[in-house]
């Protein structure tokens, strides 16, 4: 597959360490967003199906379910909403960083972003995107290694040429360029 790679459409090897850091950041944010989303779903079921809210540190104990609108201490239901919302923004930043450095199409960013709004999807999306990123980085590394070997071989051949051989080769190349420009 390394033969069909466009070097302008892939990250340079110098970007690989940064991409790996961004990928780790993405993985952490995907897990945290997934857990917060599951908590949000549980909170929504309590709130809209049973008209209950989660109270933290109130008169009914450390953690209690109370009737909607009667929270007297910390409204954990509201905090779950707020924390998930803000952490989803961090998750989107992580998605963008991986997407941008890997130079993927827009559809991949949208797929990654969707992982934070559908329960359990962030875990699946994280697994798929991590696998895809690692596979592509390995392919790109193989490509750049092959390019480096090819450049070394070319340099060795050029160094082994005498001045007469180099002049003859330059003349052949110039003639070929002229021939192709007339086609």
How would you portray this structure in words?
It is a multi-pass membrane protein. One of its GO terms (cellular component) is plasma membrane. It is found in: Cell membrane. This is DUF3817 domain-containing protein. Keywords: Cell membrane, Membrane, Transmembrane, Transmembrane helix. The protein has a three-stranded antiparallel β-sheet with strand order 2-1-3. 71% of the residues lie in helices and 9% in strands. It has five helices and three strands; from the N terminus they run αβββαααα. Helix 2 runs antiparallel to helix 3. The model has no long low-confidence stretch (mean pLDDT 91). It has 183 residues and is mostly helical. It has one domain.
Structural class: mainly alpha
CA radius of gyration: 28 Å
Give the tally of β-strands: 3
Largest sheet: 3 strands, antiparallel
Distance between the termini: 31 Å
Shape: rod-shaped
Strand order of the largest sheet: 2-1-3
Mean pLDDT reading: 91
Helix percent band: over 70%
SSE succession: HEEEHHHH
Low-confidence segments, given as residue ranges, are: none
Overall domain count: 1
> How many DSSP helices?
5
- What percent of residues are in strands? 5-15%
Oligomer state equals: single chain
Domain DUF3817: 23-130
Protein name: DUF3817 domain-containing protein
Organism: Gulosibacter macacae
Pfam family, one: DUF3817
Describe what is shown at a glance.
With 183 residues, this protein is mainly alpha-helical.
Describe the secondary structure blueprint for this structure:
Layout: H1 16-49, E1 52-58, E2 61-67, E3 74-75, H2 76-102, H3 106-114, H4 121-160, H5 163-182
Antiparallel strand pairs: 1-2, 1-3
Helix pairs in contact: 1-2, 1-4, 2-3
Organism: Gulosibacter macacae
Transmembrane segments: 25-42, 79-100, 106-128
Subcellular location: Cell membrane
């Amino acid at each position: 597959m390394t033969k069909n790679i466009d070097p302008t459409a892939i990250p340079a090897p110098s970007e690989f360490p940064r991409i790996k850091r961004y990928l780790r950041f993405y993985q952490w944010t995907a897990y945290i967003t997934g857990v917060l989303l599951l908590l949000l779903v549980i909170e929504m079921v309590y709130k809209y199906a049973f008209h209950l809210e989660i109270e933290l540190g109130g008169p009914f104990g450390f953690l209690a379910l109370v009737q909607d609108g009667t929270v007297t201490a910390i409204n954990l239901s509201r905090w779950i909403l707020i924390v998930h919302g803000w952490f989803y923004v961090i998750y989107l930043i992580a998605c963008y960083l991986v997407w941008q450095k890997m130079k993927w199409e827009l559809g991949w960013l949208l797929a990654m972003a969707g992982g934070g709004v559908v329960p359990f999807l962030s875990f699946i999306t994280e697994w798929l995107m991590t696998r895809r990123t690692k596979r592509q980085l390995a392919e790109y590394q193989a490509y750049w290694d092959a390019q480096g070997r090819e450049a070394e071989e070319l340099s060795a051949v050029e160094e082994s040429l005498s001045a007469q051989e180099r002049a003859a080769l330059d003349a052949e190349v110039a003639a070929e360029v002229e021939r192709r420009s007339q086609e």
